[in-house]
Amino acid sequence: MNKYLAVVVCGVFFLAACGGSPTASLSVPSVSFGDQAVGTASVAKAITLSNTGSAELSIVGIAVPAPFTEINTCGSRLAAGATCTINVTFAPATQGYFTSSVSITDNAEGSPLGRKEIFST
Prior knowledge:
Blueprint: H1 2-13, E1 24-26, E2 30-32, E3 45-51, E4 57-63, E5 68-72, E6 77-78, E7 83-90, E8 98-106, E9 113-120
């Protein structure tokens, strides 16, 4: 009797803890910074990270390579249905065309999530 009750409670009340899964997605397909003077930082561009799944998203890391930088409001966990913001800036040390992506390592299927290309000239 106790086993049956535990399974029913798990299936009805604790779906996320019993097999639900997180789903990470980003708000935009790309971000463009355009021309930026060497040695100066751009205005930050915001990208929203959403967890549209049924379980908590565990975030291991968020990264962008130089000459881009990021500051985020995500923390290490994002509840199901919640969002956070990743602010990306561009500060070139040399002239050129730079292409990169935001890499998000988490527990969602398909991690790392690195779909957002960042372009700049």
